[in-house]
Hints:
The protein has two domains: about 1-65 and about 175-205 and about 250-354, Vaccinia Virus protein VP39 (Rossmann fold, 3-Layer(aba) Sandwich); about 70-175 and about 210-245, no CATH class. The chain is built from 13 helices and eleven strands. It has helices at about 10-20, 35-45, 55-65, 70-85, 95-100, 105-125, 125-140, 190-195, 210-215, 215-225, 255-265, 280-285, 340-350; strands at about 25-30, 50, 185, 200-205, 230, 235, 270-275, 295-300, 310, 320, 325-335.
Amino acid sequence: MIKYLGSKRRLLDRIVAIVGEIDGARSVVDLFSGTSRVGHALKGAGFRVLANDHNAYAHTLATCYVAADREAIEHDATRLLAELQAVPPAPGYFTQTFCEEARFFQPRNGAKIDAIREAIAAKELPAELEAVLLVSLMEAADRVDSTTGVQMAYLKSWAPRAHRPLELRLPDVLPQARHGKGEAHRLEAVDAAARLRADVVYVDPPYNQHSYLGNYHIWETLVRWDRPETYGRARKRVDCRERQSPFNSKRRCRAAFAALFAALDAPTLVVSFSNEGFLDRDELLGLLAPWGEVEVIEVDYRRYVGAQIGIYNPQGAKVGEVSHVRNKELIFVAGGGGPEAARRACAALAEPTT
């Protein structure tokens, strides 16, 4: 899967174990699905997953990793990926914007991305099959980019991986989950909270000012293929200035969380947050009070890669050191036997394996 700020890769075992211990749980809503790493893991554990995210690239990832099923797409996707890999490079908007005006990719890879994306668009494929091909292209581009993992800027010198040729691979699409076919939605979180129903709702929202659209604007453009106007050295989409989430605002986030939780109708909530977030532990406990007892699990976590390398000015000169390189991820489990399920899951994970 793509490199991603806030990825829950290291928390997957805990999250899946917690949901697995909740009595009667067969379905999960993932309100802020991002890369769908959590949804993919839950699907692999047998749960019916309803994934949601308001960004187009995240919706495409969810369509591939949650909604699409291997048995339905594998044959056609494998054939089409071989066909697309053979498409001759043809530089266009992507090459000009992200390889010449900016320097995220080598131009020869940019020209290949342009050609493959045009070929996918021309095929007018069913949504799930198209999503699998788009995710393959997104992940192939991610493997040859020249960034620290976010698209706010590119490296001063080419990353070694940027010199590799672009290579399409079939994404890790899973068979249909035993509890039913998954779904991918593209709604604002509050609307999804009001409309989608499941036994468990998993909430992994933005927790500070960093916008996922701004950090992954290239994937948004690659998926939407709308050739937007851009600005700045990173050539961001102009709508990065307009599509502002209240969850990225210190002033507005508490009201956004209150509205989100008020809209939910679910017996059990699992909420991921960070101790670096706009809301502290006690504030979140207060918002979760209507669900009764809440269990809180703290996990020591390495901060994102930008926090490992220091603070730099726009000219690329190092101007400061970060204050800390580790934080704590907090998992809140509330309602419907969830706290007891969390305790059982933590105890099971702590037991030595043989």
